[in-house]
Design a protein that fits this description.
Chain lengths: 397, 433, 232
């Protein structure tokens, strides 16, 4: 069996082979880009958040009567709700916040070191107005300074002290110590470990907190709580009734773990990656069908030829391998084309979505998968083809 | 007719002779077309023009009337302040104009009732005529002044009262008294182009409508985008919000003729010039007058995933077409002997073409059924995976018709080449084979 | 070199059983040129196919060079076929999209010969059949007689010890038929054992031995005088 002969057979069927090649190439191109996208989504989902995602529960809610949305009634409501939540067995700590971490966007603004706005301005930094246990709920480590111990009203004279995440402090002050310095939102009290804030912000780890009741709750607010791992499910079930017992006039938008929140944040990417993966699966299926049918028909058309070859001393194994090799060769040629096509597609996709560039070993993986599928699909019709009886096939018509 | 039925019979016989390749051809075509249909549906619905006669006459003016001097990013804010709108309204060049934003609220008939969460569009009188909103009962506010009067959509009226004619009924909107001034007829503007910031054009229409002045009086904050460029306290919307640099408004003007557009553009330029001269707005002028037709791309809100997927599904369709024609070529080649025999027995080419047409028709019917099923499943799946676009998954008549045409053309293409080859190849050679 | 003992072959279809060969006993010596004759459907092709290991048999034994082929695997049989046996079919059975050269090369490739050796053998075979000039032609570009000569070249290029020919002249006119016969005789003289099915009594007579099959049974195999002796 020779390469030359195989090529000759392939190219004697120009149209059929051309179609097959194109199709293989496209399948590979799509397969490669889906893998890329899936990889990227996986990376995004597994990028560190600085949070114990599974054991922090998030409730998003809003009072339904206007009178509960103004101080002092609001502060009273917030504190009563916190007390009730903390009383649920298994809850380690609970806090309110004007907004939740791990979000697309929300309440944010620029921040800078006082009198150095030009140089240090950082736009779109989320501002959290939280109760004092917020840091305990998130499991933050205090890296510099001391956390504020008391809630200070934003309307009181002077502004409440500011807590920064490590990345933000570094961005603002470099290696200098942050506590005691003045930033546009107040005096820095402490620097804590990073956590994931807002996806649309300057940097997901830039966050700024003040221990104070929120300005207002027109956009609703969050109650965050950390529970003991073995109690998380039970706590979650009791949250709704516990909060409604405190005050029935509330709307609870949702109760989730931060892990769920994180997944929702990347839902679009996840959806697209899933769709592309499904499509790649379909494409592989279609390719398998085509390998199957091409071998099947080809063998059918060449029964006499196979019979002659058998009569001339080709064993079943040789015929089988010949048929397989034909498809392998086709796949290999298609793959080369496919890698080029994949680069083109990658380029085109990069115009509309964020997708990493094609690289390294991925084409090899994809080609292997493709070869495997082609082999599986060719196996059966090739086995059938070897069963051609040489005596019958060589009979004169 | 009798003849054509005969052709159909022959087609059926052909299928029966090799059912597997035929089924595979149909399967592959259906899958390819179905996947394509599913995405094409979203693509078409997302990119359609909800007001084709008007979308080039409605404009969103944006100005750099802000108290800061921008240094690096001098993009014009994508929303306006109350003050901005006031200044922009001081002209009668536009045929109509309305400022707007949306907020969340709770609506009920009495304090004993459970509140109904509603999305409120806080806007001005012209909103309804700008976007051709049909009114079912009552009448729209006569002017833009504050009034405790809401306009309900048909569905929110039904939800609250169980009927639609509820003009003059009293309601509590966040515990404040309002009366119903009008009820709208069923109306859905998809995509909702007047609210294109932050991809809000993908959401459903709002539940109730409230006059802009009343919205500010009642201190409703925008639930989509509000920016403050000075120390305005956003809890004091009715006072500071009306004068300070609190930006949360969209503003749409109707400019019917190019001359009108030119004049309005000039008006904006003069306005900014005057403000700058008065020292109120130090930033460099950067006026924008964006037509509704272009607003989504202006805000960068095009659904990139659907676009990316469109590219990919098109490729997939191509692959499936290649594959199906490959399959059907093989099918024809294995039937070739019979085909040649027919020709040898005196069938003319045109008769064979008719036979082909029967084949195409049969294949198209099967393919369309398969494609519709796959497409439907695909849409359901995409709604699950990309829920943001779920409002855009409906089939309408023009869409459905074009899909049918595409399916037919594809079936034709798939059958064309092989049958041409079979019917035009040299007779002699085929019979010999 | 070939010994068949009580060999039977039954074709079973859904409807009927055909006893194609019944208890056949046959002994063929090295260098013989035997003609197989008999009415249509009597089992000639079947016998030839069994001898060429293209078909299996139901009972009896087949010894080739003293070794039974019973129980040999497919690849062993293929190897045996490839090395010891050459086939010439009534329908030529050339591969359409292979050139003459490629067609002849096929069995040599299966045997795993080196390119140089293959080339040398092909050229030799082509010269023998007088088609050297047309080695790059395709089968469709040749006449029937030429095609059959190519088939003969393919069969002998591997230097088989046995040549099995099933009506090699069935599709040819008498002139062509004579040319082919002469070629076969020439090959036989070089020591190759030939078994040939034919309907032509003249051809049968020219062969050294005539084996008659009627209804699957081997009838007396008449020995003719060698051709050369007869003409002398
Ligand atoms: N594959 C098969 N299946 C069933 N029956 C077969 C098969 N091959 C041959 N036969 C039957 O076996 C018998 C012998 O057939 P064979 O081909 O050997 O005849 P033959 O002597 O070569 O005839 P001819 O001179 O016409 O070529 C015939 O009756 C035939 O019908
Ligand atoms: Mg025969």
């Amino acid at each position: 069996m020779s390469f030359y002969m195989l090529c000759k057979v392939l190219f004697s069927r120009k149209v059929v082979t051309g179609l097959l090649l194109l199709q293989l190439a496209m399948t590979l191109a799509l397969l490669l880009n889906s893998i890329l996208l899936a990889q990227q989504t996986h990376q995004q989902l597994s990028q560190p958040t600085g949070l114990d995602l599974d054991n922090i529960l998030l409730v998003q809610l809003k009072p339904t009567t206007a009178s509960l949305r103004v101080y002092p009634a609001l502060e009273d409501l917030l504190n009563r709700q916190l007390d009730a939540v903390q009383a649920i067995p298994g809850v380690i700590a609970a806090a309110y916040s004007n907004q939740s971490p791990i979000a697309q966007g929300g309440n944010n603004g620029n921040i800078f070191v006082v009198e150095q706005q030009e140089r240090t301005n950082v736009p779109s930094v989320p501002m959290y107005f939280v109760s004092k246990d917020f840091f305990k709920v998130l499991g933050s480590q205090v890296l510099q300074g001391e956390l504020p111990q008391h809630s200070v009203s934003l309307d009181a004279p002077g502004t409440p002290d500011v807590v920064l995440t490590q990345s933000l402090a570094q961005k603002l002050f470099g290696s200098a110590s942050a506590p005691g310095q003045q930033v546009s939102r107040g005096r820095v009290a402490a620097v804590i470990s990073d956590f994931y804030g807002q996806r649309s912000g300057s940097h997901v780890m830039y966050n700024n907190m003040q221990v104070a009741p929120p300005y207002g709750v027109d956009w609703g607010y969050s109650i965050l709580l950390r529970s003991q791992p073995q109690h998380t499910t039970a706590v979650r079930q009791q949250l709704d009734s516990a909060l409604r017992n405190v005050e029935p006039n509330i709307e609870i938008y949702n109760i989730r773990t931060l892990a769920e929140q994180h997944q929702r944040l990347y839902r679009n990417e996840y959806g697209l990656a899933t769709l592309l993966a499904l499509l790649s699966g379909l494409m592989l299926l279609v390719t398998m069908v085509s390998s199957y049918s091409s071998t099947h028909f080809h063998a059918l058309k060449r029964q006499q030829e196979i019979g002659i070859k058998r009569a001339l001393g080709a064993s079943k194994k040789i015929i089988f391998i010949e048929l397989l090799t034909e498809n392998w060769l086709c796949t290999a040629l298609g793959s080369v084309l496919g890698v080029f096509l994949a680069l083109l597609l990658n380029h085109a996709l990069a115009q509309v979505i964020s997708i990493p560039a094609l690289s390294g070993y991925l084409p090899l993986v994809a080609i292997t998968v493709l070869l495997l599928c082609v082999t599986v699909a060719t196996w059966y019709p090739a086995t059938i083809a070897t069963r051609v009886s040489p005596a019958t096939a060589t009979k004169a018509l | 007719m009798e003849q054509f039925i005969y052709y159909l019979k022959v087609s059926f016989k052909g299928i029966k002779r090799a059912p597997l390749p035929y089924a595979l051809t149909i399967f592959i075509l259906s899958v390819g077309l179905g996947v394509f249909f599913a995405n094409a549906t979203f693509y078409y619905q997302l990119n359609r023009d909800p007001l084709p006669h008007k979308s080039d006459k409605l404009f969103f003016p944006m100005l750099n009337l802000v108290p800061y001097e921008c240094s690096t990013d001098c993009k014009t804010p994508s929303v306006l302040s109350y003050n901005n709108v006031e200044k922009l309204s001081q002209t009668d060049i536009p045929t109509q104009a309305a400022a707007m934003y949306s907020a969340d609220g709770y609506l009920r008939q009495s304090t004993e009732q459970a509140p109904l969460p509603v999305s409120i569009r806080i806007t001005q009188r012209d909103f309804f005529s700008l976007f051709d909103v049909p009114v079912l009962h009552g009448s729209i506010w006569p002017d833009n002044s504050a009034r405790h009067e809401v306009i309900l959509t048909k569905s929110s009226a039904e939800k609250l009262f169980g009927r639609t004619n509820v003009i003059g009924e009293k309601l509590l909107l966040d515990d404040r008294n309002v009366t119903v001034a009008a009820v709208l007829d069923t109306w859905q503007m998809l995509p909702r182009l007047y609210d294109a910031n932050n991809q809000n054009h993908l959401s459903d229409t709002d539940d109730i409508y409230l006059p802009l002045e009343t919205g500010y009086d009642m201190n409703y904050l925008s639930n989509t985008q509000s920016q403050t460029f000075d120390d305005t306290d956003y809890r004091q919307l009715s006072t500071q919000g009306r004068t300070g640099a609190l930006h949360q408004l969209q503003y749409w003007v109707q400019l019917d003729t190019p001359a009108q557009q030119q004049r309005y553009w000039q008006f904006m330029a003069n306005l900014v010039q005057d403000e700058k001269a008065a020292g109120r707005h130090p930033s460099a002028p950067n006026n924008q007058l964006v037509a509704m037709r272009n607003i989504v791309s202006y805000f960068g809100g095009e659904s990139s995933d659907i676009k990316a997927f469109a590219l990919v599904t098109l490729l997939f369709l191509l692959v499936c077409l290649f594959n199906a024609s490959h399959l059907s070529l093989n099918r024809y080649l294995s039937n070739q002997y019979e085909f040649s025999l027919r020709r040898a027995l005196g069938a003319s080419r045109s008769q064979l073409q008719l036979q082909m047409l029967a084949d195409v028709l049969l294949m198209a019917i099967f393919t369309i059924i398969g494609a519709l099923i796959t497409g439907f499943a695909g849409i359901k799946l995409m709604n699950q995976l990309l829920p943001a676009n779920s409002l855009f998954s409906n089939w309408d008549l023009p869409l459905l018709l074009s899909l049918l045409v595409i399916a037919f053309v594809c079936s034709y293409l798939v059958t064309l080449y092989p049958s041409l080859r079979a019917s035009f190849g040299t007779l002699n050679q085929q019979l010999k084979e | 070199m070939i010994t068949l003992t009580n060999l039977s072959k039954i074709f079973r279809t859904e409807l009927i059983e055909t006893h194609a060969l019944r208890e056949v006993n046959l002994q063929v010596e090295e260098g013989e040129f035997a003609a197989l004759t008999g009415p249509s459907g009597s089992g000639k092709s079947t016998l030839l196919n069994i001898l060429g290991t293209l078909e299996s048999f139901d009972s009896g034994d087949y010894l080739l060079d003293g070794k039974s082929i019973n129980g040999l695997s497919d690849s062993a049989l293929s190897k045996l076929r490839n090395e010891k046996i050459g086939f010439i079919f009534q329908g030529f059975n050339l591969i359409k999209d292979y050139s003459i050269f490629d067609n002849i090369e096929l069995p040599l490739r299966y045997r795993g010969l080196k390119p140089a050796e293959r080339k040398q053998r092909i050229e030799h075979a082509l010269e023998l059949v007088g088609l050297h000039a047309r080695r790059h032609y395709f089968p469709s570009q040749l006449s029937g007689g030429q095609q059959q000569r190519v088939a003969i070249a393919r069969a002998i290029a591997g230097k088989p010890r046995i040549l099995l020919a099933d009506e090699p002249t069935g599709n040819l006119d008498s002139l062509m038929a004579r040319q082919v016969m002469e070629l076969l005789e020439q090959i036989n003289q070089q020591g190759c054992t030939i078994l040939m099915v034919t309907h032509d009594p003249d051809q049968a007579r020219r062969a050294g031995r005539n084996i008659q099959i009627i209804d699957g049974q081997l009838h007396d195999s008449t020995l003719y005088e060698p051709l050369s002796a007869q003409s002398a």
